Backbone:
């Protein structure tokens, strides 16, 4: 696999080819070998590099295709369904309709301004690819394009990683970085085929922006800075994580200013990128004026103004050539600048014009904030702090190669290495705070580890090569003999150096091959599940597929009136609108906490109160997910406490202790009476009391919780069962109209 | 104390003036352009303070186009200035072409943003 091939590309092709030309006798075997193609060394190296990059490109694509081969080409999870629906809309109705779209099918009765509240980068990219393929007369369905967008952009990311590695260190590091990032599980987890989410395109845009910016700082050219502004624009259009870029780059500039590594190239690069990038970013409606009004973006503006003052002072100093006068000038300017800046910032923050950091990003700086104040953010499983096992699972050997790479970076500090060190350290901090952000840290970790691998292997192979050169330089007795003679003396003092080098090289190859095996195993086992189709092993080892979700959504699509409104927990909203094509009350966008709290209150109240709430929202159908028959543990009963917390956050009538017994969440006979009679319990366990789920257990045995349920005789007054899927995973109920008053 | 600071200020001003008059004409032209752009931006901000910032995108696009072109002109000056050793192998024509390209992109975005 890729892991084994790359380290040899570093420096050995040169020595191998030269030794081969002199040593191998001309026979049939060597005449068909590479060397007899009469290519010069540089061309051989180019050929090797291009072929390695080509293989890595293909590898990155095919490593992500497990779920397409095992199941079918479908969209995974929850958020991608929304993206798919919007892309479908874009390709059918055109860009103008898409940009101005008001959707009345979600968040009934409020509706959602989709055109102004999404990041259009992903959809526009997929639509462009689709239109290009159609232009070339490949009439593919838009779903195929959506499914394969993520692997395609992952392959492009490997190319950008190669160029970035080349900027920071050398071509060898670039090749290793490309190979590492092609199969790194931290990246694969969010870019597998079918995972049609913003991150698929955003990581490519992130790395591209950083690469172009580092290139601009290195060359000081306005055109590279313009390119990085466009890269930033693409990133802003793709993902909300662009805030990381607009804070990391000013931080980097600040570090360079403080450590006196600044130069005029830095001025050109940052200013052009900031102004043009900010203007381009404000064209996205969802971002709007945040670059001048939000607290998260003030760092960039502050550094921009600081730079103007700093470089102006530098220019005046250069003009004056007289330190005493300059000191007075310096004093006046600096005090006035700080005063003006401080007053402006203070007035802006105090008057509320500059909005403070939003909850999502504030919880990164203060991890305990979300748990106390914003339960919706705290409830998402991806937002939990990261455990060490997650780090090991997602990075494997890169975890200890990262500090080694940091050591090499500090040995050879330059503008580019300072940048990658800062990127690595800040992103690793954030990855430790939130599991989802391991993805953002992955390119930095891969690049820095690649530096470690490349530098180590280069040193080891150069040790090996000096041994080979000893007999040859002995014969030539020419230039460089002094160098080789010193190396000869070195050899004689450490006779086992060659063996040590070979042993270490074998160790490096072993580590990299284990990494490749681990990555493939992780991709195959953990990250290729579509989440909407579940699989399990039967009693005889055969695979059983549970396709209940799609069964339920298609039942909704075909058996309910077109204007029916469906109430469910917000997790399933996107899927219901995309596949069931019905209006939902709340969905995954979670922009309106009160609306979600209303649904949560309905789910946790007694049936009568819940019926009033449902009538007020015009609900026709209720959908719940239940895992008691199959042992599926991500069902609504396990999520129930979050419904209570979110509902209770807005409606104090819902109190969490009412549903717990001694602080414990139970559904068996010992559960609290409010729990046994609330709407969610009734809907999930209706008719379940008569079912035998496991041999040897009583009826009504809940396999997900492992207990026999407490309330087996459930009667529903205002709802009736409409549909239950074949494995009881999704249950749909119809809300009955009010009885006629006599 | 006051007399010494005013004398310092006068000395400062005089030495700055004499140092500046030694700069070549092409750089002085660029400097004049920068001052003009910043002055236009200041006028726009003053107008906004009087009238209010209702179409905020128009105000932002006006101010940012002035600041943007000023900043790009400063970058051009840096790249064209013969005293800067870092840029000595950059042809001034290339610097000017970059400047024109960036200004073109800037103004196209401004036209879209003006509303």
Residues:
């Amino acid at each position: 696999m890729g892991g084994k091939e790359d380290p040899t590309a570093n420096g050995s092709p040169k020595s191998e080819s030269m030794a081969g030309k002199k040593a191998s006798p001309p026979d049939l075997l060597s005449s068909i070998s590479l060397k007899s193609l009469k290519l010069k060394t540089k061309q051989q190296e180019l050929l090797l590099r291009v072929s390695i990059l080509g293989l890595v490109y293909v590898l990155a694509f095919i490593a992500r295709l497990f779920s397409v081969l095992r199941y079918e080409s479908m969209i995974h999870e929850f958020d991608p369904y929304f993206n798919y629906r919007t892309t479908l809309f874009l390709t059918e109705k055109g860009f103008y309709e898409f940009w101005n779209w008001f959707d009345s099918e979600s968040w009934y009765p409020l509706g959602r301004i989709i055109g102004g509240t999404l990041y259009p980068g992903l959809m526009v990219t997929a639509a462009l690819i689709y239109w290009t393929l159609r232009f070339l007369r490949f009439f593919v369905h838009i779903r195929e394009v959506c499914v394969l967008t993520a692997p395609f952009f992952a392959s492009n990311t490997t190319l950008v990683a190669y160029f970035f590695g080349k900027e920071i260190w050398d071509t060898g590091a670039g090749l290793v970085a490309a190979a590492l990032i092609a199969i790194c599980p931290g990246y694969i987890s969010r870019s597998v085929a079918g995972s049609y989410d913003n991150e698929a395109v955003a990581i490519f845009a992130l790395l591209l922006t950083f690469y172009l910016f580092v290139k601009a700082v290195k060359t000081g050219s306005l055109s590279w800075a313009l390119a990085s502004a466009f890269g930033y624009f693409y990133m802003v259009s793709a993902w909300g994580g662009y805030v990381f870029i607009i804070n990391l780059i000013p931080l980097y500039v600040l570090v360079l200013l403080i450590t006196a590594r600044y130069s005029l190239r830095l001025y050109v690069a940052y200013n052009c990128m900031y102004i043009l990038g900010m203007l381009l970013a404000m064209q996205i409606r969802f971002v709007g004026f945040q670059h001048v009004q939000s607290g998260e973006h003030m760092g960039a503006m502050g550094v921009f103004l600081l730079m103007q003052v700093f470089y102006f002072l530098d220019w005046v100093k250069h003009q004056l050539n007289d330190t005493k006068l300059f000191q007075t000038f310096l004093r006046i300017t600096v005090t006035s600048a700080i005063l003006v800046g401080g007053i402006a910032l203070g007035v802006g923050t105090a008057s509320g014009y500059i909005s403070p950091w939003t909850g999502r990003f504030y919880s990164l700086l203060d991890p305990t904030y979300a748990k106390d104040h914003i339960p919706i953010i705290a409830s998402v499983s991806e937002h939990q702090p990261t455990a060490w096992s997650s780090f090991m699972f997602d990075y494997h050997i890169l975890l200890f190669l990262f500090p080694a790479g940091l050591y090499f970076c500090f040995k050879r500090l330059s503008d580019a290495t300072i940048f990658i060190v800062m990127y690595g350290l800040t992103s690793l901090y954030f990855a430790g705070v939130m599991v989802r952000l391991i993805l953002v840290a992955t390119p930095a970790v891969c690049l820095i580890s690649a530096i470690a691998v490349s530098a180590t292997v280069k040193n080891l192979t150069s040790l090996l090569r000096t041994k080979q050169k000893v007999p040859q330089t002995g014969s030539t007795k020419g230039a460089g003999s002094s160098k080789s003679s010193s190396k000869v003396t070195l050899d004689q003092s450490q006779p086992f150096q060659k063996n040590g080098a070979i042993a270490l090289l074998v160790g490096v190859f072993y580590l990299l091959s284990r990494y490749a095996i681990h990555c493939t195993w992780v991709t195959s086992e953990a990250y290729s599940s579509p989440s909407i189709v579940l699989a399990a092993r039967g009693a005889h080892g055969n695979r059983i597929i549970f396709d209940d979700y799609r069964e339920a959504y298609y039942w909704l699509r075909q058996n309910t009136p077109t204007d029916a409104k469906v109430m469910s927990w917000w997790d399933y909203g996107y899927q219901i609108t995309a596949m069931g094509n019905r209006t939902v009350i709340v969905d995954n966008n979670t922009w309106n906490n009160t609306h979600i709290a209303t649904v949560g209150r309905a789910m946790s109240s007694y049936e009568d109160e819940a019926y009033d709430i449902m009538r007020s929202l015009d609900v026709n159908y209720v959908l719940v997910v239940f895992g008691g028959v199959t042992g599926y543990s991500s069902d609504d009963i396990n999520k129930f406490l979050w419904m209570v917390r979110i509902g209770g956050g807005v409606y104090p009538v819902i109190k969490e202790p009412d549903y717990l017994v001694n602080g414990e969440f139970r559904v068996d006979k010992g559960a609290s009476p409010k729990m046994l009679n609330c709407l969610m319990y009734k809907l999930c366990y209706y008719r379940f009391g008569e079912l035998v789920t496991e041999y040897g257990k009583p009826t009504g045995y809940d396999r997900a919780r492992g207990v026999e349920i407490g309330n087996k005789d459930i009667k529903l007054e205002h709802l009736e069962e409409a549909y239950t899927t074949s494995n009881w995973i999704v249950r749909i109920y119809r809300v009955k109209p009010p009885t006629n008053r006599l | 104390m006051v007399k010494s600071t005013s004398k310092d200020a006068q000395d400062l001003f005089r030495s700055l003036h004499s140092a500046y008059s030694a700069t070549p004409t092409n750089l002085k032209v660029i400097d004049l352009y920068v001052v003009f752009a910043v002055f236009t931006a200041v006028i726009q901000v003053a107008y906004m303070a009087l009238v209010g910032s209702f179409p905020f995108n128009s105000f932002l696009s006006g101010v940012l186009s002035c600041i943007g072109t000023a900043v790009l002109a400063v970058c051009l000056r840096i790249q064209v200035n013969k005293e800067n050793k870092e840029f000595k192998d950059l042809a001034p024509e290339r610097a000017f072409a970059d400047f024109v390209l960036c200004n073109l992109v800037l103004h196209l975005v401004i036209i879209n943003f003006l509303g």
Remarks:
- The interface with chain B takes residues 220-223, 225-226, 229, 263-265, 267-268, 271-272, 275-276, 278-280, 282-283, 289, 292, 316, 319-322, 325, 328-329 of chain A (CB under 8 Å).
- Chain A has a mean pLDDT of 86.
